[in-house]
Amino acid sequence: MDNTIANNPGWKSEEPVQVTKTYLPPQEEYQQFLNGIWNRAWVTNHGPLVTQLEEDLSAMLDVPYLKFLNNGTIALQIAIKALDLKGEVITSPFSYVATTSSLVWENCTPIFADIEPGTFTLDPQQVEKAITPRTTAIMATHVFGNPCDVEGLKQVAEKYNLSIIYDAAHAYGVRYKGESLFRYGHFSTLSCHATKLFHTIEGGAITTIDEELNHKMSYMRNFGHNGQEDFYGLGINGKNSEFHAAMGLCLLPKMKDLIHQRETIFKNYQKLLEKVAEKVSYQEIRTGTDYNYSYFPVVFESEEDLLRVQKQMNAANIFPRRYFYPCLSSLNYVQDTGRTPVSTGLSKRILCLPFHSQLDSDLQENISTLLLKAIQ
Ligand SMILES: *Cc1c(COP(=O)(O)O)cnc(C)c1O
To answer: Which residue spans of the chain are classified as CATH 3.90.1150.10?
Structure first.
């Protein structure tokens, strides 16, 4: 039976459709890894699966140093600590809350600079305007996997002697000008949360190309230990388990195919939405990017359009997400610089549609039809 809205106007999804659906490997594949864990009875503390995942992931992301952590937020916090950041850190208010909250948690003051209107990433010119004698670093997000202007930000950072941390939570597998995006900045951080493109249920990673920073991040994620009875310095528990690493090892070999499937679905959405091409716009992927198709964000002309779309979809049991809303400059524990009109405006008008590698084509058509109906 054709289950599209065209043939079935009162259509409503039986199951709730969320913005993403966690990819799970065939259960037998995970079971194989469980057998090994049971045989060894080595469940955490840098076991062989964690070590293997670190090797495979660093090869995949083409970075010399990578540590697998318990989440992407602790990765940001270890990066801030390892660089010993204090004072003001310039960052984007158009990101997930963890980017800003990590800075505040580590006693830094986030100073918001605005984003580029097309790419949604931090604008180097706006960063330069926000610099004061108290500025120590830039924390920039590769939003939805789209690379920041890494060259522009590097220039500003070098001119004012600032560190750069890239929140690369969404940037699994992205390359820019033929090189891994993870090779830029002092640190990059990845999230491997279940909602992210590459996941380990909960998890994250921190990467660097600098040997000394690698030493620091390595001991910091393990309580500062230097062997059992000595410590290099201050640390925290950033470790992850064999069970989480096993999920990552199941997924890694499939990522290329999964990304390819997402590309097809991504392009199909754009085609299905051609009828409202004047009323919606999309993120501009920076030229020179090998993209990972991690999200499908749609920008509307007005917040009213967005709310209409959201309401119609929710009534049909479809739950797109407002990433990223509200704008982080409105958090009650930060100072709003009042200099981020692009971010504030975008936050109100952007909606991520349900998007994952297994999205059924009838369902995709229905989601698109609901959007068209709401704003046409
Ligand atoms: C998901 C996310 C994080 C946090 O990662 P966790 O693994 O959930 O702690 C940080 N920054 C951005 C941009 C994210 O999307």
So the answer is: 5-13+255-375
Which of helix, strand or coil describes residue 246? helix
69 lines ligand 1 (CB under 6 A): no
* 204 Cα nearest atom in ligand 1: 7
Q: In the structure, what pLDDT confidence band is assigned to residue 2 with cuts at 50, 70 and 90?
A: low
Read off the pLDDT of residues 36-70 as tens digits, 9 standing for 90 and up: 999 999 999 999 999 999 999 999 999 999 999 99
Domain with CATH 3.40.640.10 in the chain: 27-253
CATH topology assigned to domain 27-253: Aspartate Aminotransferase; domain 2 (3.40.640)
Ligand 1 within 6 A of 294 CB? Answer: no
CA distance 178 to 41: 42
* CATH number at 5-13+255-375: 3.90.1150.10
Average pLDDT score over residue span 18-32: 97
Summarize pLDDT for 71-80 with one digit per residue, the tens.
999 999 999 9
> Which residues have a Cβ under 8 Å from the Cβ of 195 and sit 6 or more positions away?
19, 20, 22
Q: What is the reported pLDDT for 156?
A: 98
Apex 61 CA angle, 58 and 62, nearest 5: 75
Is the entire prediction scored with pTM above 0.70? Answer: yes
Strand partners, 281: 299
Distance CA 273, CA 296 (A): 12
